[in-house]
Each structure stands twice: as structure tokens, then as C-alpha cells.
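Reviewers of the previous submission asked for a worked example of the structure-prediction workflow described in the proposal, so we include one complete record here. The input consisted solely of the amino acid sequence. No template or homolog information was supplied to the procedure at any stage.
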Amino acid sequence: MSAELRWPYRSGLVQGRVARAAIRANLGGFVGAVAARGIDPRALRDRAVRAQGRLPAGTLAQIRGLADGAGEPYPLLLAYNLYGELRAADACTVMAALGGASASGRTLFMKNSDQVGNDSMVGPGFHLHKDVYVVQATRAANGRRIVGLSAAGATGIKVGVNDAGVAAGSNIARTSELAARRTDVSQVRASDRTQLLREGLEEKTALGAAQRILAKTMREPTSTPGNMEFVDAAEAWVLETSYDRFACEVTREGPLVRTNRFQILESLNDPGDASSAERYARCRALLDTAVENGGVTFDDLVAASSDHANGPGESSICRHGEDHREETSLGAGVVEIDPERPEASRIALALGKPCHAWRNPESHIELTADAEPGDIPAAFLDGSAWRASYSEEPHEALV
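From that input alone, the workflow returned the following C-alpha cells.
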């Protein structure tokens, strides 16, 4: 193994050893969900091996480390990372403030990560039929350090930042065509959005990340339509990608919001998706009020992550449900980008329901973009920090 691949391999090995039980649980849920869709898991693993060249070398090395550390088959870990959206694509809410919209003048970025559960996700490694979330710190083959929130066993980033001061997030888009789309194994695409975020975070600017990932999705669209957001100290680029239409938008001043809908390609949106529209309006109202009062702060975005207006339920930013198959919030991240020392950009990660996790010192952590795996306590690697604050019962102080 070349010297530049040893670091991502070692980071995966550490994560795999610590999170062995959570990884096994997430893999079991993935296999069960794939089989329930009529896709042969063995055929999917074979396809993943043939498609592995689509992932960067550093990512493959990290997956190899995860497999060795967790004692799980490499082809299965590869399929989980390439085709994770077959189980559940991230729903999610994203907010950002750039330029004068930020009280400090520094770019701020927030994402709540929402996901559905699955009947197959049962057993000691699971909690309420949901994926187990962990923190990861790794390094790409080009040396770029990346810190963020992930599902146990995944190299893809749900929300994260790199040591060049680029942050990233994404959301599925609820479009009219999504409900009618059906995929068999011959049509499966190896373009999971969380993996695309991880790849984009190898770049040193938001523009570079957006250019790289837009070109990739234009060649091979993701299995589900959605948004990807890349931000740095100067600007934010949003990619809206569907099966046959693509759009991008740049923001250099002001607030930015994305929920599970398109803003540019809005004609594609599912008119029955009330939740996305209501969350979008609530996010804009919170940001606009903060701007009028002197600018958005880091703490404003932490508070917004726990917001229960229009709920608590599927239409609140912090999403709750009565059935595990509903899209609900499983974690969150808030980033502040340091333009002078990008490697010191701060990221706070909440594991579990945001309204609980931000109030539980055992379930949230603040790191810098140059963090090492050794900087992360074991509880944030093995899933126990997530389990300590994941509940569909809203935090009583916020109801």
C-alpha cells in the first residue's frame, strides 16, 4: 500500500474496530432493505466490486480498513458505501449564512440529517429501527483532512468540513418522478450523495468541489434526485440534480436554505410534499429574523436545529414521528469557517435527536477541521453517544 493510502486505511481500521457492533447492525439493515426491494444482495456486492473504481483511492483504502477492523467482508462494505441510497436517502434540512448575514462575518452552515427506518433493522445493534450514527475523522489520498457525521461503516459524509475550510451537506428532493421510479440491480447507480460529498471535500474550494461533483453527476445521475451544498469562506454552491436535469446556484451574500425540494428546478417538485415547503419557510423566517437582529450566529443554528415549529413532527426542522418508517432527525452538524486558518474551522456534531443531543454533553462534540481519530472519544465512534440521545419523544423543554 502506498504511503498516501496508509492514513485513510488506518483511520478506517480504527473506526472499524471501535464501531464493530454498530457497523454489523447497519450492514444487516442494508442487506434486509435491499432484499425487501427484490434486489439480490450477492449480485449487488458483485456489482460493487466491478464499480469500485468510481470511488477515490483514499475512500477505497478507508473502506478496506473499515472491513478489516470490523471483521466484515470488503465487498459488502463496498456495496453499503456505493449503494447506501437503496436503503434510505438522507432527507434533511440545510441552512447557511454568508457575508453580512453572519454576525461574525464568517460563513456558517447547518444540516439536520433525517432518515427513514426499516423493519429489517432489528437486534442488539439497532435502536428503534434506525441507522447508528458516528463521527469520523479521516484523510484523503491527497492529504486533505475531513471531519464529519456518518453512518457507522460508511465513508460518506452526511455533514462535514475539511481542513481547507470547505463544508458540505445534501438533501433528497421529493419530486413527482421520484415516487414512480423503480430500480432493479441492472439499473443501480454507484452515486450515493454522501459519497459525493466525501469526494467533493477533497477539494480546496466550494467551487472546485461543485465543479467536480456536478461533472460526475452529469455523467451518472444519482439514484434519487436531490441537492448538494458546498460552502467555503467566500461562497456557497448548491447543485440540484435530477435524472435528466441539472442546475446550480451560487450565493456570496445572505442566507441560504434547502429542504427536500428544488428551488431552481421547482417545476419538478411533488406538490403533495407539504413538509419540505413548511420547513423551508420556517428556516427562511429564522434566518431573516436573525439577520435583522444583527446577523446569524453559531448558536442560532444550533437552536434552529432543535426547532419544533410546525410540529413536533415531520414538518418541524427537528423532525419526529410515531412510526419508524417516517423521516425523522438522527443527527446534526453546525460549521463555522475560519477564513484565515481554515484548518481551525469549527464543527459541532450532535448525535441523536437534535433537541436531545444538543442538551446532552454525552451526545455532542465540537472539533476542528484538522481533527485526528484520536481526538474523538470512543462513544462517538462506537454509536453509544448516538443511542444516548436518540428518541422520537420531543425534548420536554422544547414542546
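The mean pLDDT is 92. We consider this example representative of the routine output the project will generate in years two and three.
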